[in-house]
Design goal:
With about 230 residues, this protein is an all-alpha fold. Helices cover about 85% and strands about 0% of the residues. The protein has a two-stranded antiparallel ribbon. The protein is rod-shaped, with a radius of gyration of 29 Å. The relative contact order is 0.16.
């Protein structure tokens, strides 16, 4: 292994590669760059969003009315927490437009509609957050297949060289085989990190989803508490 990466051995393999091998290696390099870019971007931005969601949940614990919820949403403007609270307030507001006996209240059916709306908001948020994650999953599979394709192509070229030179000496076929296997190595160097990155991000996405569920539960609990208190005053 050390002899492969020492000196000019590795560069000689690349320099002797044909056009198809270079195309495969170039595609694998682009896939690697894309995967690492997605991974680092998601890690950075999701860390900030998890922190914002936790802070919003803490703020919502001290909320006493919907105005406090609105204030919390405005404080977290242009964040995932603020977006979720704003959408939740909009869903509640649309249901509160119905007046009954001069008082505004929600019946059981409208509570079910509100809960359904909150679930839809949560699904939309998670669907948006998991964008680009399939790229990692697909890359982990395609990279392996591309590496295998490059290897088969290189082996075919080696056997063609054997047939044209009418010799099967190891010194003749070894460079061709090594050149063929370099694409397998490159494919694995893309596929293995892509699999690891996908599962790490999937775990982080689960943490964001749990925080959104907690935020949704706090919103529903506060709304029920306020309406129950209002109805008791009647």
């Amino acid at each position: 292994m050390g002899s492969l990466f020492s000196g000019n051995s590795l560069w000689q393999l690349f320099s002797q590669a044909d056009l198809m091998t270079w195309i495969v290696l170039s595609i694998l390099l682009c896939m690697s760059v894309v995967c690492w870019t997605i991974f680092l971007y998601k890690i950075i931005i999701w860390r900030a969003r998890c922190s914002q969601l936790k802070e919003a949940v803490a703020k919502l614990k001290g909320a006493k009315n919907l105005e406090d919820v609105l204030h919390t949403a405005s404080k977290f403007t242009n964040t995932l927490a603020g977006y979720f609270l704003s959408k939740s307030l909009s869903a509640l507001k649309s249901l509160l437009m119905t007046e009954r006996g001069g008082k505004t209240e929600l019946d059981d059916r409208e509570w079910e509609i509100l809960l359904h709306s909150l679930n839809q908001i949560l699904d939309a948020v998670i669907e948006r957050e998991q964008s680009y994650l399939p790229v990692l999953s697909v890359s982990s599979q395609v990279a392996t297949l591309l590496g295998l394709f490059g290897t088969i192509w290189g082996l075919m070229q080696s056997f063609l060289d054997i047939s044209t030179q009418h010799a099967a000496d190891i010194t003749i076929i070894a460079p061709g085989i090594a050149e063929a296997l370099i694409t397998t190595l490159a494919g694995l160097m893309v596929a293995i990190p892509a699999v690891v990155m996908y599962h790490i991000l999937h775990s982080r996405l689960g943490a964001i989803e749990r925080q959104c569920v907690v935020l949704s539960d706090r919103f529903v609990s506060l709304s029920e508490k306020l309406f129950n208190a209002y109805q008791e005053q009647e």
